[in-house]
UniProtKB/TrEMBL annotation:
Membrane topology: Multi-pass membrane protein
Transmembrane segments: 5-22, 28-46, 67-85, 91-110, 122-143, 149-169, 249-271, 313-333
Record family assignment: Belongs to the UPF0324 family.
Protein name (database record): YeiH family protein
Keywords: Cell membrane, Membrane, Transmembrane, Transmembrane helix
Length: 335
């Protein structure tokens, strides 16, 4: 009981920041900056002014780790295989190439820049899948550090802000149709809020299609975390003789990922009513924002600066390559 009580101060602080972040986001046009990014940045700013003490830290650690995992489980209730069926095979074709670019090209680029594999793949996931949600889902699976999570979300956010401005200009200059532009945006821009802002900046039809494509893209979180669960376990087994003896197939997939997949399957079969699915999605989103607020509160800017410019260079190159590859594929399939 005493241990549970120790979590309350830090948890409450993270929830308060999450509330303010969501309130700020709701006032912004097109929700141009996501609440998760706002919460992370608010937490980082507070950390520069006031360092969390031993009274706050247990709750922050609990929120950043356990609450984050629970939010991922609930996120599954908002995903449905039916979404894929509602979007043409065109989007899946483009996503195949962008996914290969993000993780294949990102892997090679990360090695060339000398990046830690966890840091590089957090950026690859944020770029290739869906920004903060993908980073948050992958981080516990590969045991990523809080500073790596903060850096990955920050650099993907910077690219998104640039694309909100540039994509509509480039789309009109190239004479893209609403569907072509929506497909390009949905497969290239990272965070959901940024996809919505970028899509509707072109036209309502483009925004609608971009959002649908983005939801389909989000489903790739499932195979991604499964693959990285296996990779992480294998790498740990190679570096630790003790871990090698303990590795079992049943232990390769974290419990919260199993629960996450279970929730998405339940929703795919229509066993969640729309109000229940929406409610669970909102709770998941709010808890994820709180977890990122806790990570921000634990993040020192001096530690981020020590990581150097290479992760930022990595993010810019991979994001740019994704946008170019998506545009080339769209051109060849002639939408």
């Amino acid at each position: 009981m005493r241990k549970i009580l120790a979590y309350i101060p830090g948890l409450l602080l993270a929830l308060i920041i999450a509330f303010f972040a969501r309130s700020i986001e709701s006032t912004l046009p097109f929700h141009i900056i996501g609440d998760s990014v706002l919460a992370l940045f608010i937490g980082i700013v507070i950390n520069q002014i006031w360092k969390p003490n031993s009274f706050i830290e247990p709750g922050l650690n609990f929120t950043a780790k356990r609450v984050l995992k629970f939010s991922i489980v609930l996120l599954g209730a908002s995903l449905s295989i039916n979404t894929v069926l509602n979007v043409s095979g065109l989007s899946l074709t483009v996503m195949l190439f962008t996914f290969l670019t993000a993780f294949g090209g990102g892997f090679l680029l990360g090695k060339w820049l000398g990046l830690d594999w966890k840091r590089a793949n957090l950026i690859n996931a944020g770029t290739g899948i869906c920004g903060g949600s993908a980073i948050a889902a992958l981080a516990p699976v590969i045991n990523a550090k809080d500073k790596d999570i903060a850096y990955a979300i920050s650099v993907t956010f910077l690219f998104d802000m640039l694309m909100i401005i540039l994509f509509p200009i480039i789309g009109r200059a190239l004479g893209l149709t609403d569907m072509a532009y929506g497909l390009w945006t949905g497969t290239s821009v990272n965070d959901t809020s940024s996809v919505v802002a970028t899509g509707y900046a072109f036209s309502e039809a483009a925004g609608d299609f971009a959002t649908m494509v983005k939801l389909t893209r989000t489903l790739t979180i499932i195979p991604t975390v499964l693959v990285f669960s296996v990779i992480s376990a294998r790498l740990e087994a190679k570096t630790s003789p003790t871990a090698r003896k303990k590795v079992k197939i049943t232990g390769l997939i974290p419990w919260f990922i199993v629960a996450f997949i279970g929730m998405s399957l339940i929703n795919s079969f229509g066993l969640f009513s729309m109000p229940v699915s929406t409610a669970l999605k909102n709770i998941s989103r709010f808890l994820m924002v709180a977890a990122l607020a806790a990570i921000g509160l634990k993040t020192d800017l001096k530690e981020l600066k020590k990581l150097g410019p290479n992760p930022l260079i990595h993010s810019v190159i991979v994001s740019t390559l994704m946008a170019i590859v998506a545009l080339i594929v769209i051109y060849f399939i002639n939408i």
